[in-house]
Design goal:
Arc Repressor Mutant, subunit A, Tscrpt_reg_LuxR_C, Sig_transdc_resp-reg_C-effctor, mainly alpha, WH-like_DNA-bd_sf, single chain, globular, 125 residues, 7 helices, transmembrane helix, transmembrane
Length: 125
């Protein structure tokens, strides 16, 4: 079982992960519906998966750099799935918080040593 998807298969997988149906995916990639369904079948075969949920989990694992093993996910069941999703959510939340803090800081505050930084500004309502 090969794990590498072609660029077209990756594009189609991303469309499915966004919740698009076969016809919408076909319109998005500019291919006939039957071709998109064939690509979907090949994606499932290459990854050793059998459902859209597993495809979404594979894409999440791919984005966060975690190794995907469909058999392990099936054996461990819901706990593995929830762990992966929790990790992805916490990673996204931490990155979002870091960006929010950086946007609020001036360039001088951003690159100053922690002891030299002015005290945090308190916003009042």
């Amino acid at each position: 079982m090969r794990k590498d998807l072609s660029p077209t298969e990756l594009l189609i997988a991303e469309c499915y992960c966004r919740g698009l149906i076969d016809k919408e995916v076909a319109e998005a990639v500019g291919k006939p519906v039957w071709t998109v369904r064939t690509h979907k079948k090949h994606i499932y075969q290459k990854l050793g998966i059998s459902s859209m949920q597993e495809l979404v989990l594979w894409m999440v694992c791919r984005r966060i750099g975690k190794v995907w093993n469909a058999k392990e996910v099936r054996l461990k069941g819901l706990s593995a799935i929830l762990s992966i999703l929790l990790l992805a959510q916490s990673t996204l939340w931490i990155n979002a918080r870091i960006l929010m803090v950086r946007r609020r800081m001036s360039p001088i505050e951003r690159y100053a040593e922690p002891a030299e930084r002015p005290k945090a500004r308190v916003e009042s309502w």
